Amino acid sequence: MPELPEVEVVRRGLERWVSGRTVAEVQVLHPRAVRRHLGGPEDFAARLRGRRTGIVRRRGKYLWLPFDDDAAAEAVLAHLGMSGQLLVQPAEAPDEKHLRIRVRFADDAGTELRFVDQRTFGGLSLHDTVPGDLEGLPDAIAHIARDPLDPAFDEAAFHTALRRRRTTIKRALLDQSLISGVGNIYADEALWRARLHYDRSTATLARPRAAELLGHVREVMTAALAVGGTSFDSLYVNVNGESGYFERSLDAYGRENEPCRRCGTAMRRRPWMNRSSFFCPRCQRPPRPAIAARPASRPAASPLPARTVS
After folding, report:
1. 159 annotated as ligand-binding
2. Which residue blocks in the chain are alpha helix, DSSP H?
3. What is the structure's pLDDT at 293?
4. Buried-most residue among 11, 15, 133, 235 (CB within 10 A)?
5. Can 2 be counted among the known catalytic residues?
6. Is there a binding annotation on residue 98?
7. Active site residue 170
8. What pTM did the predictor assign?
9. Is the pLDDT of residue 301 over 80?
10. Which HAMAP family does the record associate with it (predicted)?
11. Could you tell me what percent of the chain has a pLDDT over 70?
């Protein structure tokens, strides 16, 4: 699935090409694409018509489009799923094979927004926003934590929650209620940079090491953003259909049996939660298995003195 850098690349494109435009018409070409909208396809299209879009926002792997008008406090939530694409295309461009939703605008810019999704795991839906939230956060994702590139991300709270989870480091990095936007690829990359094994307990991570790991998460995501994210195939593209190329710079993910760029040891891959974890067995030493404490042996009882019979 696309992670924070890939979703942020899409957000920036939408901000440039979609924000501030008025919706003229919405066509839902596949009902599954709006399955999370309780009112159904016709209601979804009708409630968007005539609305003026605000600035596109993102939290973790989710995008949302608030409205800059006086209507109800609502926002369109977008989740790309495994293969979803939000494309800005010329109105006269041929339809994509897996086009699911088309949004036309009431202006002469000549472009429209298209949601294309081969596997239909993603979708769009309309939600109420959290009362008082300045960014118009949809209530459906109010439980999602802020991401490490968010200026409001609370490092102290992150470390405290990390120590309390009693889990392993990679599981914690992928917990979207703890820190959002990090997926399998960038977790492996950050852990390689921090020289931490994915199975190490969060309870053993002191505050300086947690801060160091968080710094590496930010570094790898910032580097990926600079080159458009990671695209292993044509499914992960920006709004213009262009792929990112950060996969050329990956140090851990996908490099099984290749030499570690730091020490030369062959990289390894291990099955992990229906995914794979890539690591260097020398730079990222696995944690030692816990040894069960044995009960202390009782000292041998001293013999009772013999009783004298008178």
Report:
1. no
2. 4-17, 40-48, 155-165, 169-173, 184-194, 207-226
3. 44
4. 11
5. yes
6. yes
7. no
8. 0.84
9. no
10. Fapy_DNA_glycosyl
11. 85
